[in-house]
Design brief:
It is built from 14 helices and five strands. It is globular and about 60 Å long. InterPro entries: DUF3800. It comes from Streptomyces cynarae.
Length: about 325
Amino acid sequence: MSRHRESTVRAPTAGRLLEVACDESGSDGENLTSGNTDVFAHASVHLPLPSAAAHVQEIRDRIRSPAEEYKAAHLLREKHRAVLEWFLGASGPLHGHAHVLLVEKSFFVVDRVVDLLLGDPAPALALFRTGRERFGDEPWRRFLEASNDLMRARGNGQPEAPVDSFFLLVEDLLRARPRGDAGETLALLAGARERARAYRARIADGPALVPALNPLLPALVRTAAYWGAGGHQVALVHDEQNVLTAQRIAWLKEATGLFGFRLVDSRLDARVQLADFLAGIARKIASDELNGRGDPGLTALLRPYVDGDSLWGDERSGVSLRHS
């Protein structure tokens, strides 16, 4: 998706602290190329707590499931299509009060490895969009997996092994003499072995403050910027996450200027429950669109919520999902 675009217009909030509730869907840890999901979605909701509680109750009244805890899957069932359309639609609870950042995981891997090795993520998009066609499905899949392995903190105790595997694969791809941006970027990557070794040495010393392969922290940085536009003070309330340690929360507050950040049990905060619903729904709709099985009606309903700064490489689905 293109950079520096805004998603749905927020309700007027000038002069007030914005407490925004957040949750995510599609987290597979550091395994971004062969995990259970191909899309990560981070949703945020700005609503008064009593209003959010009333909306959650209305969802329960409309669906009438005996489940103690409702999840996005309840709204995504075909028999509840009308509830889902209301939930996302202009007359629903979230319109004008919510935001979604989408991450296409395979593109995120390419974006991160290019940034790591070249110091600039800009060439990643062209490489990603042409790589599969230029090299073929299987070589491209191996390149994604090797990139993922190079950057992941957890290894097999041999820091050099992912480095050797990655650069052997890059050299193999270069034997195909790729032309254009893909070839130029691969040639630059081939010369960045020392950067890769230095990175593996750093992570061998201990976990990074900002994990390279976890999209949650970049999503939170963008969420803070979105809601803080216009100079608003922002405090985030997030569902409990192991990755959000006290040190990382402190980093987030300093890096973004957040007024506050706290973790809660989603079952105890209706605003976080709504963010959980939206994140799960957005991930499913976006994944379907990415894989050519999108539902035009649902994609159109999601579109106003989607951040134009979403980390998305696929051009066709990006156009469909992007807010215009």
